[in-house]
Amino acid sequence: MCRVSGTRRARSSAESPMAELRPVTLAAERFVAAIEARSIALMLRLDLSLPQLRALVIIHRHGRANGRQLAASLRLTPGAIVAICDHLEARGYITRVADNVDRRITWFELTERGAAVFNLTPATTCAKARMKALLLGMSSSDREGFVKVANAFAEALESAFPVEEAQFDRASR
């Protein structure tokens, strides 16, 4: 079951009917499909499973992560995280680093090879350049609107796989 967060507003006669939302819904679905296609292509190229790729993304986003953070973020058991990280380490994508203060904590960090995953192909470089050009061509208010909408979409999509940001903040201190 999918929950929709936020408040429900009473429909007024001035609100757009559902038919007017169709182009917006189709554009949003196209946007999500493009992201999914890129993720699937990357998984196939790297011969990784979705949880392995998601673990790499989380480590990339935060700079490093420990097993508890990954388990909470991926909603997996610590044993599953060990298996995922063993595989990623064997492939040369991550390395384990002991915490300098608390020896009970082991951090997972990207290696050079792991960081290179996020800038792998000329197509990725080309897509990033096109995206930057598009964003530079927008007015400041359009960019602000895009940030608002993109963050709302990200929150909606991430709600299926919530990342425990507070755990990352606490563990990084």
Task: Give a written overview of the molecule.
The protein has helices at residues 18-46, 50-62, 67-74, 78-90, 112-116, 122-136, 140-158, 165-172; strands at 65-66, 94-98, 106-110. The protein is mainly alpha-helical and 173 residues long. A three-stranded antiparallel β-sheet has the order 1-3-2. A hairpin with a 7-residue loop joins strand 2 (94-98) and strand 3. Helix 2 packs across helix 4 (78-90) and helix 3 crosses helix 4 (78-90). Mean pLDDT is 81; it is low at 163-173.
Summarize the structure.
The chain is mainly alpha-helical and 173 residues long. It has helices at residues 18-46, 50-62, 67-74, 78-90, 112-116, 122-136, 140-158, 165-172, and strands at 65-66, 94-98, 106-110.
- The sequence of SSEs as H and E is HHEHHEEHHHH
Summarize the amount of helix as a percent range. 55-70%
Spatial arrangement of strands, main beta sheet: 1-3-2
Largest sheet: 3 strands, antiparallel
- Rounded to an integer in angstroms, the radius of gyration calculated over CA atoms is 19 Å
Which regions are unreliable across 5 or more consecutive residues at pLDDT < 50? Answer: 163-173
How many separate structural domains? 1
Quickly name the level 1 CATH class.
Mainly Alpha
Class derived from helix and strand content: mainly alpha
Shape: elongated
Strand content: 5-15%
Rounded to the nearest angstrom, the distance between the terminal CA atoms is: 36 Å
In round numbers, the mean pLDDT is 81
Looking at the structure, the CATH topology is Arc Repressor Mutant, subunit A
Q: Kindly state the number of beta strands.
A: 3
